[in-house]
Amino acid sequence: MSKTLKDVKVGEKVTIRRITGTGPVKRRLMDMGVTKGQEILVRKVAPLGDPIEVNLRGYELTFRKEEAENILVE
Hints:
This protein is an alpha+beta fold. The protein is built from two helices and five strands; from the N terminus they run βαβββαβ. It starts with 12 loop residues before the first strand and ends with a strand.
C-alpha cells in the first residue's frame, strides 16, 4: 500500500509522488500547488487527525483527511 499525506507524522518532510482522485478534487489540489515532485512539511495535525496543516511552496495550507488521502508521498 502506498503512503499518503494522511499517514505522515508531524515534522516529517515528504515528496509528492502522485495525486489520485478525479475531476474537481484533483483539479482543486493542483490549483493549490500540489504537484508531483514538490516537498511538503507537515506542521500540525489536529487531535483527531483532521485537519492537517502543511507547508508547501512557502505557503501554509490545511487539508482535510479525505483530501490528504488523495496525495501519495514518498
